[in-house]
Write a structure and sequence with these properties.
The protein has 179 residues and is an all-alpha fold. The protein has 2 domains: 86 residues, Rna Polymerase Sigma Factor, Chain: A; 66 residues, Arc Repressor Mutant, subunit A (Orthogonal Bundle). The chain has 8 helices and no strands. Helix 3 crosses helix 4 and helix 6 packs across helix 8. The protein is elongated. The chain starts with a helix and ends with a helix.
């Protein structure tokens, strides 16, 4: 069944495209929203991503549905990164945090995903993007460096900055909770 859907997508079968879109749209929208933070823009970029997937399906080589979904996710993330570049809201400076800087320890507190999401959305665009690529998408620092056209150490620095900032915010929430 799954192989047949991929084959139908390669033949530009509209029903297969509609089915694939319907079962994946929500997940791809959430990815776009995580990067862009705006529902309308996330929806537009998600649709651009699906358009690209459907028009470049011939470049997809792994015949399985899982591989296609991973490839679709990568296409959608790349569309988000292109949009961030167009907005000129993502920029990186050369001043880096030393790699040896350790993240501080503090008591863990239970928080739901929405709180984490909101904290991540508050990060500066460059930190948020690197954090999402590394932590959520599972990219390596080399892959992030290539995708964002930055040095690999800059990716490491921005991840460290994002983690430190998130920990600072969580620690502050924890301290407020104790008061």
């Amino acid at each position: 069944m799954q192989k047949r859907i991929v084959d139908k997508l390669r033949k530009k079968d509209r029903k297969a495209q509609e089915y694939f879109y319907r079962i994946n749209a929500k997940a791809m929208f959430l990815i776009c929203y995580r990067y862009l933070g705006n529902e309308e823009e996330a929806s537009e970029i998600m649709n651009d991503g699906f358009y690209k997937v459907f028009n470049k399906i011939h470049k997809f080589r792994d015949g399985g549905m899982d591989g296609l979904m991973a490839w679709t996710r990568k296409v959608v993330v790349n569309e988000c990164l292109q949009q961030l570049r167009k907005r000129k809201q993502i920029w990186f400076s050369d001043d880096e945090i030393p790699e040896s800087e350790e993240v501080s320890n503090f008591p863990e507190i239970a928080m739901d995903a929405e709180i984490y999401f909101n904290l991540i959305q508050q990060l500066p665009e460059s930190q948020k993007t690197v954090f999402n690529l590394y932590v959520v998408e599972g990219y390596t620092h080399l892959e992030i460096a290539e995708a964002l056209q930055i040095p690999e150490n800059t990716s490491r620095s921005y991840l460290m900055r994002a983690r430190n900032e998130l920990q600072r915010k969580i620690k502050k929430m924890y301290e407020n909770e104790l008061q």
